[in-house]
Amino acid sequence: MPPFSGELRDDEIWGRGALDMKGQVAANAVAMASLAREGFAPAGDLIFAATADEEVGDGFGLQWLCEEHPDAVRCDYAVNEGGGERLELGGSVYYLCSTAEKMTAPFNIRVHGRSGHASMPGIADNALVKAARLVERIAAYRPEPQLQQEVEAFLRTVLGDVPPAVSVLERARAVHPIAAELVEPLLAPTFAPTMIFASQKRNVIPALCEIVVDCRLLPGQHPERIEPMVRAVLGGDVEYELVWLEAQGGTRSALDTPLWDAVESFVGESEPGAHAVPICTAGFTDSHWLREAFGTVAYGFFPARAMSPEVMAQLIHSADERIAVDDLELAVDWLRQAARAVCA
Fold first, then answer.
1. Same domain, yes or no: 70 and 139
2. Residue 42 lies in a domain
3. pTM confidence score
4. How confident is the model at residue 20, as a pLDDT?
5. If 0-12 CB within 10 Å is exposed, 13-18 middle and 19+ buried, where does residue 301 land?
6. What is the mean predicted confidence (pLDDT) over 60-74?
7. Looking at residue 344, what is its pLDDT?
């Protein structure tokens, strides 16, 4: 691990690379061990599954366990990453609990041209130049906003009502800018061109240019339904091929469950006056493997209040990624209470 660039504090643990997830693994292990030492006897199995590579996929981690050893991880309820941030909005305190996630559905756009020597661009048909028009179109596109149940629940809790979809960002921004940042990617599918491949030689005009677009769909949406929208945005003046690379996630869990009751109870007890509020994760977790395989109610909740959400967001995957010791202790308290509330 390389040296950190900040000042080491006694109340923080430092590292590089997903320390929030490593902290959650540690909190889970301590919670399980302490319950066992106390002689806690759950009504069913209480499982500690430490898995990896949820961002890589391809048959590793929880996906592999669900497929190859389902009895080892089959469960009715699960607590995962993806939530727990403490927000102060409009004078009230809220803790986010992720109850759903968007689908990651990246696609590849292949644009063909005709190669040639870069010293004579007029004799070639530059695929990179043609592709640039498509990159600009897909990056500038903003789909019509829509409201799904997690955003509606968030707005109802924070605003007291659910405004029309077209007014959501304005209303949320009036409460706090971070509220608008939180809900904006949850109002529609998002499209972000992130990678491009063309000529490997400076003096060769490319005959092929490939664009990779990171696409995130709302729960319930699928590539076959979104593709006509994408093609309409790209237009018909440039010939291209569109290939979907994968489609994973896009699942949700119900809110009327004993696990949600446990989240609400913990938030109210640990910080009187605070509220638990559901949210959809714009990113990606491996909770969907459990939901799809077993119908598991899976929430992302790792309560954290020692550092602001703005600071935590800046530290993810950074050289100075760290977690407060107080938050590790808070998470252990939550996990122990969840186990007793749901499994007693």
1. no
2. yes
3. 0.87
4. 56
5. buried
6. 93
7. 84
